[in-house]
Amino acid sequence: MRKAASSFIRRAGEIQMNIEIKPLTPGLVPAYLDYFDNRAFSDGNPNGPCYCASPSMDEAAERRMIGEFGDDVKGTVRRYAVKMLAEGKIHGYLAFDGNTPAGWCNAGDMDGYASRHWIPDFARQNACGRTMSVVCFCIAPGYRGQGVSVALLESVCADAKAGGFAAAEGYCMTGENREYHGPERLFEKAGFVEAARQDNRVVMRKIL
């Protein structure tokens, strides 16, 4: 896969943001941890603490992690994430405003994700060749609604196409608990269309 950064400039009110999208590499692990340590849920979002480790776990590993939570949920999740980052098991893209991490998108080869929660069975059954799966978004407070998620998606698609993938997909949820997966309208802005639907899940696909 092509490993290149992309950037765009967005003016939010009187503040100009120079957003740069970078694929996660070993050198960016400190920025990744800083993002989830200090920025991703700095508004008290109840979905935290999270280090986006779960998408890259199988269900047995996730149960083990939950069983170790005790009184330190954040510390336990962070410990698992640090180990997985060292092993190269977490894949995706960071958005930066200058040197400040401002957003994250978990994306990788569909075959690298085991959990049915993140990629439902019917999506795998309807796959159309090698697929880049976009399973999670997390945008920092102050950067939401400014086009950061679309820029992340566009970088994912550009790199996936250069890497020989046939398609990119997202897995939206309707109803409650849909924040991390991204809404259908987000994927539509980046040229995705509905490819399949079952119960409260929608597969959004872009042929590359």
Give the helix proportion (percent range).
25-40%
Broad CATH class? Alpha Beta
- Give the C-alpha Rg: 16 Å
Q: Which fold name corresponds to the CATH topology?
A: Aminopeptidase
Jot down its keywords:
Aminopeptidase; 208 residues; 8-stranded mixed sheet; globular; single chain; alpha+beta
Protein described:
- The structure is a single chain.
- With about 210 residues, the protein is an alpha+beta fold.
- It has a single domain, classed as Gcn5-related N-acetyltransferase (GNAT) (Aminopeptidase).
- It is about 30% helix and about 30% strand.
- The protein has 6 helices and 8 strands.
- It has an 8-stranded mixed β-sheet, sandwiched between helices.
- Strand 5, helix 5 and strand 6 (about 165-175) form a beta-alpha-beta unit.
- The two termini are about 15 Å apart.
- About 40% of the residues are buried.
